[in-house]
Amino acid sequence: xxxxxxxxxxxxxxxxxxxxxxxxxxxxxxxxxxxxxxxxxxxxxxxxxxxxxxxxxxxxxxxxxxxxxxxxxxxxxxxxxxxxxxxxxxxxxxxxxxxxxxxxxxxxxxxxxxxxxxxxxxxxxxxxxxxxxxxxxxxxxxxxxxxxxxxxxxxxxxxxxxxxxxxxxxxxxxxxxxxxxxxxxxxxxxxxxxxxxxxxxxxxxxxxxxxxxxxxxxxxxxxxxxxxxxxxxxxxxxxxxxxxxxxxxxxxxxxxxxxxxxxxxxxxxxxxxxxxxxxxxxxxxxxxxxxxxxxxxxxxxxxxxxxxxxxxxxxxxxxxxxxxxxxxxxxxxxxxxxxxxxxxxxxxxxxxxxxxxxxxxxxxxxxxxxxxxxxxxxxxxxxxxxxxxxxxxxxxxxxxxxxxxxxxxxxxxxxxxxxxxxxxxx
RNA sequence: GCGGUCGUGGCGAAGUGGUUAACGCACCGGAUUGUGGCUCCGGCAUUCGUGAGUUCGAUUCUCAUCGACCGCCCCA
Length: 426
Fold this sequence. Notes:
Blueprint: H1 14-33, E1 37-38, E2 44-46, H2 47-54, H3 59-63, E3 66-69, E4 75-78, H4 83-92, E5 103-112, E6 124-133, H5 138-154, E7 160-166, H6 170-184, H7 193-201, H8 216-220, H9 230-245, E8 251-252, E9 264-272, E10 281-289, H10 292-295, E11 303-309, H11 310-317, E12 329-333, H12 336-351, E13 356-358, H13 365-374, E14 379-383, H14 385-390, E15 392-397, E16 403-407, H15 411-419
Helix pairs in contact: 1-5, 2-4, 5-9
This protein binds one RNA strand through helix 3, strand 6, strand 10, strand 11 and helix 11.
């Protein structure tokens, strides 16, 4: 009976972890570049936080959360997204009273949703997200979007599109929602089962339907931007003109709506047509949320943010960027005395900051050389009976194939001297 | 949650109701008492995702279960 990882979870093995670190490092660098600071919040929160923040009619909350009671009977949920935790923390620590009115945070880490696994969709997955809290300015919306675009560009992702839309403020949303219901009411019986459900629950999502995509009423449906209030319209226009000024490519997608309840005004998606993901795959998405903080018990503080699915980024990245550093030295002992000596030497070398390893498998030289190649070792250090006897080692440079007999006390000096040419990376 | 395809060594991949489950890659050993390539030789699945059933006999047929992938739903 062998165990396997639970459905929808994966092990990130060491041959992939380098690529993950590369992605993480890139994201951290970009955030530093934008003066966005990291925030780390718990992986589980009170269930209540998500039902309030994400919306108690959303699919994420109603059927995808990993919720359980802890030993004290509290309802706890593994976070299905990152915004709620950041918002909670912002309120809890009264970060709105910091001298900088605009607080910019990023996070990355595992999220949990009980869904049917597919390529680029797991039950435990990772998101990188950014939240900018404190201002209602369209400049902030655009800063967030530019950061998102910077990410995909830095990763070298091709066939990327930025879709944007505005849902408007609460009044705009309500007016629009009513207009949509009026529009679809007469043709409800021609729409699919899901759309009939959506009609009651979340009419906005009808616009997203793949089944009824070609229904004539889709084209004639009212558009959110036609229902924007004066100020909401001005906000959206400013967002667009700022994007134009920065020469950021985008398309206004009037059917773009988001599934989480907290969004208002600007919403956007970064969509990839990379065949590895399947055409039209969303790799990142976000938008403005002006009522979330107050709904969580804080003051009225607006915010805007987005999240990327890191697994999806990884898939779109491909494998070409992975390269790993080799060892400085691979020690190849022949016999037990040589192994004892190798243990001494390798500990000494490591203490001196060299990356190295030694063979512990008691293999012949041939096999040990193969390992040295696999580890991309700069030097092979051969230690046999002769060397032990004479208190020397045989240093073979794996690039030049040149071999040098080096006394034990001169090993560090020898390596350093050899590296003076500039091979060493530290 | 619904529909579909599929699970054979570390990986890729044949195969059949009957005795030792091809082959390729990788790995290990030898030819080469201590030098990486090539070549040759040898080794490497008490077992065909798991469990049950049919059968004299199941990796093969049936059912269940678990998992992967694809479409839908939803989402990052």
